[in-house]
# Entry
Amino acid sequence: MYTAQELYTRYEARFSKNNFRESPNGLYNPVNHIMSMKGKRIRPLLLLLACDMFGGDTDRALNPAFAVEVFHNFTLVHDDIMDKADLRRGYPTVHQKFGMNAGILAGDVMLAYAYKYLTDIPVHFIPKVMSVFTETAIQIFEGQQMDMDFETRSDVALEEYLKMIEYKTSVLLACSLQIGAVLGNAGEQEQSAIHHFGLNLGLSFQIKDDLLDAFGEGEKVGKKIGGDILMNKKTYLYISTFHLANEEQKATLNRLMNESDELLKITGVKQLMTDTGAYNATIKKADELYERSLASLYKISLPAEKKQALIELAEKINQRDY
Amino acid sequence: MYTAQELYTRYEARFSKNNFRESPNGLYNPVNHIMSMKGKRIRPLLLLLACDMFGGDTDRALNPAFAVEVFHNFTLVHDDIMDKADLRRGYPTVHQKFGMNAGILAGDVMLAYAYKYLTDIPVHFIPKVMSVFTETAIQIFEGQQMDMDFETRSDVALEEYLKMIEYKTSVLLACSLQIGAVLGNAGEQEQSAIHHFGLNLGLSFQIKDDLLDAFGEGEKVGKKIGGDILMNKKTYLYISTFHLANEEQKATLNRLMNESDELLKITGVKQLMTDTGAYNATIKKADELYERSLASLYKISLPAEKKQALIELAEKINQRDY
# Structure
């Protein structure tokens, strides 16, 4: 078995260059631009660790590991166009640097390359890996649409929010883990267990991400604190605040939504988030989901030491210590 | 064996509705908008006819036939955004009707659905069908990039132009035919022959399309005559004109490129196209490619009557009588 660090090193060595064709430049320079912004490789690592845990050949899992990373980066390129984002990980976004058409087309070809690498595996794995991946891709696009729809709605329910982040964020973690399990010859039940591990890990992560956006320390979070509050974004934390508020607090919240003084708005909304108990309820929910994710992993019939590397990565993701 | 009409009818009956999920509406309404503009179903028909010719089960080929149509429509949605096109088959384009973000995301999910339908076939066909399709998709994006690159270049060679239209247009016809052949259990050599049939048929078609843009009858072509000339588009016809022109004709051509009077420009350039012999050379090239496409089909070791339906469709495509 490998440590996460060893798998990370092998992954980086394999995919440090020449993963796409060279020409036409107008197509592949934008692709290489986004792919050269080094991410944390969470999805490839989850895939490789899951494969290794079930005793699979991690060499054979490297291409699909790259595929989920390429797919993830494709979604970032198109999402950045839709969100009109100028910066990503401190660099200009693809459409900002190369133009919108380049961003659209680079994303498209990345999706095709994701499928190319995904299926560069022993043929008997291809049908199952394909169906898991394609179902996931469809859910991710549905999640992105829900997210855009929620911007103009004020009545988003907690269940709807959870479904949105499940689709937009969690399913790709779950898919990466499940593909790793498939390549490790895991049975349907084990695949399902590790899929649920990823789903709940992702939900917990995203809910904590929303918490940090309001209550984190600016430096550690790496972005402006209170951004979601200023945009009246309907996060789990925000929706909980609205549901737990009494009439007076609801009135204050509604007033603050239109407050133009940024500091007043952020301070006021955060006060309501704690006063209503939404802050604590949100932490509790995230912790529950994290515990539930680990429970899915525990119930897989493998010796504890086989699961250790994956548990450690989950813990790092949960603690944002990666 | 089936006639093209019978296969068309079965295809339409199977895919007349409910091919995508219903929710979220913001995602699937744009998808249904483009898919409801009835096309000629050339790619699905090529796939089904090829499958039938090799004795395959056309029932099993219906899903991949739909997949190539969904993929083709996805490229139209994204190309229309890149080309800033407002109308498609007389209807508002997706981004025009639903906004750019909807166009980008609808295209993305259509690509995922194309893979979903493509692989809804007996599992032993999946690996080969996947690799043919994904390679084709990558080439199509490369072709679209070349096409955009050519807009700002004046030195496009004939070979480059042919490569561009091969990638942008022909490979999907060739891919559709080859997938049909795979599903008909054709061997590698037969797959290659039918692939080349599609490649050259597509090249011939596109070169004739360029000819019609300049010399066709407005009503029959269904678009404004001379549009390519007005945009100084580097078609096979245009590049040939430039290459065959003497110094005086070259000077005239260069002057006409900046002519603001539309009628003068179109009339003048068309005159040069015939005077230089480019018009005749272009017709000759298209005819040669069409003959070469049929030759690939003839060399497949099957009784002539098996090939008849496919030859008839090729003839219709060539005559634009479909």
User: Anything to note?
Assistant: The two ends of chain A are 21 Å apart (CA to CA). The beta strands of chain A are 87-88, 91-92.
